[in-house]
Amino acid sequence: MNKIGFIGSGNMAEALIKGIISANLYAPENVLVSDIRQDRLKYLAEEYGVQPASSNTELASQVDVLVLSVKPQNMAAVLEEIQDSLNDSAVVISIAAGITTERIAQFLGDVPIIRAMPNTPAMVDQGATAVVIRNTGPRQFKAGLDVFMAVGKVEVLEDESLIDAVTAVSGTGPAYFFLLMEELINVAIDMGLPADIAKELVFQTAKGAGLLAEMAYSRNETPGQLRERVTSPGGTTAAAMKVLKDLDFNGIMTKALTAARDRSRELSQ
Ligand SMILES: NC(=O)C1=CN([C@@H]2O[C@H](COP(=O)(O)OP(=O)(O)OC[C@H]3O[C@@H](n4cnc5c(N)ncnc54)[C@H](OP(=O)(O)O)[C@@H]3O)[C@@H](O)[C@H]2O)C=CC1
Ligand SMILES: O=C(O)[C@@H]1CCC=N1
């Protein structure tokens, strides 16, 4: 049975671990985790039954699929540490924003590399991931892709530079929706709604909007069509949309996503 290991066992690693175990892609005893934070290892072992490794190098030497899930700022130190410990024919998956396959190969040589940009809905099997590959054979490609396909949808990109845009759109994407929920709750409370009712209404609206998006996708409809169905002529939604348009919502989103994309580019330096 193949083993998978995660170096850096934080939020995103947990989302993937939960997804691959619940999809039965890996049994918990074949999932190794490593982190400088012992509390994370203890928590993951208790919550998911995965195996804490004693060091990054021990983990790297034991797995067929090695997921590098530390923050981009910690990546060089980890790559340097594990460069002589990799299992022969292991595929290395990096999910770090900004870190290029070229950068990884500078440390690890021409090993099979998959650079992926997943997102946290992987935790509920609804992830959106884009990948680029370097030097991977069919077996390693499949092993790598299976991880992300077990937890949602996967797009394969030819042009690695587009991963920075993916990071802004879907990697960071859930945060835009969650910020919107936070603001809906805050404003509802400001408008006089009791906090518990505001929370209930906003969570249920988010869930309903998500399910409607799923329905629209299956019918080949656009988000604009969904929005129009909420918007009665001369009504309340139209009033709200006009304010957002007048305040250049499109411009605000363009600036936010451009900042995210540019930060991803910066992290590669
Ligand atoms: N969160 C997200 O939505 C997404 C994140 N990503 C990428 O995933 C990666 C992880 O992000 P995220 O899970 O949010 O980050 P976290 O900070 O939650 O997880 C990273 C973990 O790695 C630990 N760590 C730091 N240095 C080392 C080391 N040398 N060896 C082992 N472990 C170490 C960190 O400890 P400490 O905190 O003490 O530094 C932390 O526990 C990032 O590169 C990010 O760009 C990609 C897509 C989406
Ligand atoms: O904020 C970040 O840098 C990571 C990458 C995409 C989502 N979270």
UniProtKB/TrEMBL annotation:
Main location, first listed in the record: cytoplasm
Pathway given in the UniProt record: Amino-acid biosynthesis; L-proline biosynthesis; L-proline from L-glutamate 5-semialdehyde: step 1/1
Enzyme class, spelled out: oxidoreductase
Annotated binding of NADP(+), by residue: 7-12
Annotated catalysed reactions: L-proline + NAD(+) = (S)-1-pyrroline-5-carboxylate + NADH + 2 H(+); L-proline + NADP(+) = (S)-1-pyrroline-5-carboxylate + NADPH + 2 H(+)
Role, per record: Catalyzes the reduction of 1-pyrroline-5-carboxylate (PCA) to L-proline.
Protein name in the entry: Pyrroline-5-carboxylate reductase
Organism field: Anaerohalosphaera lusitana
Lineage: Bacteria, Pseudomonadati, Planctomycetota, Phycisphaerae, Sedimentisphaerales
